[in-house]
Description:
The complex is a heterodimer.
Chain A: H1 13-21, H2 25-47, H3 50-66, H4 77-96, H5 132-144, H6 148-159, H7 164-171, H8 175-197, H9 204-207
Chain B: H1 7-12, H2 14-18, H3 24-36, H4 38-55, H5 64-81
Helix pairs in contact in B: 3-4
Amino acid sequence: MSAMSSPIEIDDEAAIVAQARLGDAKAFSELLRRYEGKIFRLALHITQNREDAEDVLQEAFLKAYEHLDQFQGQSKFYTWIVRIAVNQALMKLRKRKSDRSVSLDETIDTGEDTVAREIAAWDENPEQQYSREEINEILSSAIDGLAPIYRAVFVLRDVDDLSTEETAEALELSVPAVKSRLLRARLQLRDKLTRYFKRKGDDAFAYM
Amino acid sequence: MTPLLTCKQFLDELSDYLDEKTDAGLRKKLEDHISECPNCWVICDTTKKTIQIYRGMDPYPIPSEIHTRLMSALELKMARKT
């Protein structure tokens, strides 16, 4: 391998990917450094198991390295590697829960779960009542309480800030499927967080 | 005046409303609904806060031993490919 020795100075992802495709190890390491944290977090949320998440992380980056020539460059590198990581993570889930198949595309009940259960106004800046560690723990465990089909959509769309279209592409779902999952995920999380963030001694009607 | 949306109709559009993806006409109908419906106002406000809190979540720092093992695995793979 004749790795180019020039350091990466420009912050242009397409150029970094192009260098990596030419076999530049440093360029690929730069992509890894950018996204390993996000991929690990996503894998943790889907598999809910640290060992599996680490396996998913390694498999995703090794596969990406191996198949970099198949990356078309029409989408973002992150969207592409998320797709690989999600497939790996779902395989892990299926192996562990061999009694039932796990898919992001399974049909979902469209009825009751859009109905909010707890309706109470929150404090103006509810997160300020908790330490940073406590907030991270509350937010993570709320996500982990969602079904796998909602977790991945929510993390990509609202934590990683991908667009609806990018999320659809990464998860191989239709745009309407992403939207309906996102709505349910948001409403369910809102419900879960209300327990922690609601204004004490208050209710919706008193607030109006 | 057009009839108010039902709560179910409002909730179905909530994501697009919060993402500012609704057209002006629908937006007006949704805003008319929340000005009349305290429950949906609260759901809308707290869902908005939910999204804001998650967007501000700390980036997950990858544990250093996991980063180290990932780099070793990659270097091994790169060496094989040479």
